[in-house]
Specification:
356 residues; alpha/beta; Rossmann fold; Arc Repressor Mutant, subunit A; 3 domains; four-stranded parallel beta sheet; two-stranded antiparallel sheet; 14 helices; globular
């Protein structure tokens, strides 16, 4: 991280220069671009994770972290259709365990959860494309739908506590999924802090630039003469101060600069650590990416619908198909895997409600 090299050993005499401010802004912009380019983190829900989320929501009266993070656009929740059916079938069991009615659980899911979840109906032919999903199927057929979808969208989060059944997909601990969600939240907080740490020292330069632009339009080049007089007056005022006061001013400015750099470094560390945890929590990418998986993943990362031509541009050349083949594949699986929301524009999955 560039910023770490700017923290001096003692710190007390450090002054934040305009060049360093510009470097900080560029560094944060690079971090933000990397995060934005990655898009929302895809996450596949399993039934047991929903049960735990419902329990926590009823207990504390607030939406689970996974749903809140999906609402702010950092996480994108997907569920295989058969997993949704399984969840509906288990509602009476969940209701008995949680001490509420089935109607109440259905209401919570339809009102709070399902508007934030895209449901994907995978046909049998697409479920068997990744050998990791087949290993999950061999252990428990009921977990096969979620495993198949997670394998196709990987790298992604698999929101489950069942590490025994999903070990083939890299789920090693009960809390791995929750760690991943917390990491996404930490990254968001860290990035807000990064921008805040940069905005404070950068603000005077931006204000000065905007002011000079306005003044130049109003009174012409004379504005720069006035600016020179103001700056010169400030320097003259500083030079005329007693040595003790000049030392006090330098220490105060240095203290402010050091504080800002420390704030920036702490925020950058939060973002870095969050990304380390997030990567460790995710289902790893497949050893060999198929064109089907590549198309589905691009749609999972996109915040808007994509056409066959747009997908062809986004796909890696190693798995890129002709536009006509992509279009035919999208149309073949319209209203199951994909949904056409505009002419020629498709999204992954669709919205569902649990029937009464």
């Amino acid at each position: 991280m560039h910023a770490q090299g700017w923290i001096p050993p003692g710190g007390s005499q450090f002054v934040l220069s305009p060049e360093q401010v510009n470097a900080l802004i560029a560094d944060a912009a690079e971090l933000g671009a990397l995060y934005a380019r990655r898009g929302p983190v895809p996450a596949v829900l399993d039934t047991d994770f929903i049960r735990t989320g419902l329990h926590n929501q009823l207990r504390v009266g607030a939406l689970p972290r996974s749903v809140r993070t999906a609402q702010d656009g950092s996480l994108r929740l997907f569920m295989e259709y058969d997993t949704l059916v399984e969840t509906q079938e288990k509602l009476p069991k969940f209701a008995r365990q949680l001490g509420v009615s089935v109607d109440e659980l259905r209401r919570i899911l339809n009102l709070d959860w399902l508007p934030n979840i895209e449901v994907v109906k995978l046909p049998p032919g697409l479920r068997v494309l990744d050998p990791r999903a087949l290993r999950v199927r061999d252990g428990d057929m009921g977990d096969f739908p979620a495993a198949a979808l997670a394998a196709l969208l990987s790298p992604c989060l698999l929101l489950t506590h069942n590490y025994k059944h999903f070990g083939a997909l890299g789920v090693l601990t009960r809390d791995q999924a929750l760690d991943g969600v917390m990491a996404v939240m930490a990254i968001n907080v860290g990035q807000v802090q990064l921008h805040a740490a940069i905005a404070v020292p950068a603000l005077p330069f931006r204000i000065a630039g905007a002011t000079m632009s306005w003044a130049t339009k109003k009174i012409g080049p004379a504005a720069w003469v006035i600016l020179g007089l103001v700056v010169g007056g400030g320097i003259y005022w500083y030079v005329k101060q007693p040595p003790e006061r000049r030392d006090t001013i330098k220490k105060a400015v240095g203290s402010i600069g050091t504080h800002l750099m420390n704030e920036y470094g702490a925020a950058a560390e939060v973002v870095y650590q969050g990304r380390v945890v997030l990567r460790a929590s995710m289902v790893p990418k497949p050893q060999y990416r198929t064109p089907v998986s590549a198309i589905m993943r691009e749609l999972a990362l996109s915040s808007e619908s994509l056409s066959a031509a747009q997908l062809a541009e986004l796909l890696d050349p190693a798995v890129r198909l002709p536009v006509a083949e992509i279009r035919a594949f999208l149309r073949e699986h319209d209203n199951t895997v994909f949904q056409q929301v505009r002419r020629g524009g498709f999204v992954l999955g669709a919205q569902y409600e649990l029937p009464d």
